[in-house]
Amino acid sequence: MELRDKVAVFVDKMLLSGTPDGKKEADAYFAQLNAELSSEEKKEAGRLMRELMDERRLARQAKRTDINVKERLAGIQEMVSLSYIAKHYFGKDRSWLYQRINGSIVNGKPAAFTDQELALFSDALRDIGSKISGASLSIH
After folding, report:
1. Cβ contact 26:13 at 8 Å
2. Helix 39-61 to helix 3-15 angle, to the nearest 10 degrees?
3. How much is the pLDDT for 59?
4. How far, in Å, CA of 57 to CA of 112, rounded?
5. Does residue 82 carry a pLDDT above 70?
6. Residue 61: its pLDDT value, please?
7. Residue 100 near residue 69, CB atoms below 8 Å
């Protein structure tokens, strides 16, 4: 495996290290990698790690204008409280969410969701759906 690939594996493990087990796994991989690299390779690995982290950060921040969220919500928008979703899942006010759904121009650019925000929005809808299903079952 090339050095770039090894560093990419480490960066992926680092980004997923939000749990104690994930942190242990990332630390163990780093220790293994550190032990097998020469000092020159370590310098190169550091440069590669910074480069890969920047790439991942930019990818997370990229706006997704290719998905028309308003169109996808057409059948349910009146059924769910988008204000509730904005506040409880994003920690934002409803205008922030509506701007992204409608593609409103904000600071000269169309507002859009990032991949991370789209995933959170999808999870919010799924969570609300399961709560509604649970309430339905408890009534029946």
Report:
1. yes
2. 50
3. 67
4. 17
5. yes
6. 65
7. yes
- Tell me the C-alpha to C-alpha distance, in Å, between residue 10 and each of 27, 31, 79: 9, 10, 43
28 is written with which tokens? 């163990």
> What number of other Cβ atoms are within 10 A of residue 20's Cβ?
8
Alpha-helical segments (H) within 1-140: 3-15, 20-36, 39-61, 69-72, 82-85, 94-102, 115-139
98: its two tokens: 């509506």
Q: Token pair of 76, please? A: 């349910």
Q: How confident is the model at residue 93 (pLDDT cuts 50, 70, 90)?
A: very high
Hey, what amino acid is at 115?
Answer: D
How many whole angstroms separate alpha carbon 63 and alpha carbon 52?
19
End-to-end Cα distance, the chain: 57
In the chain, the amino acid numbered 53 is M
User: Exposed e or buried b for every residue in 98-134, given b needs 16+ CB within 10 A?
Assistant: ebbbeeeeeeeeebbbeeebeeebeebbeebeeeeee
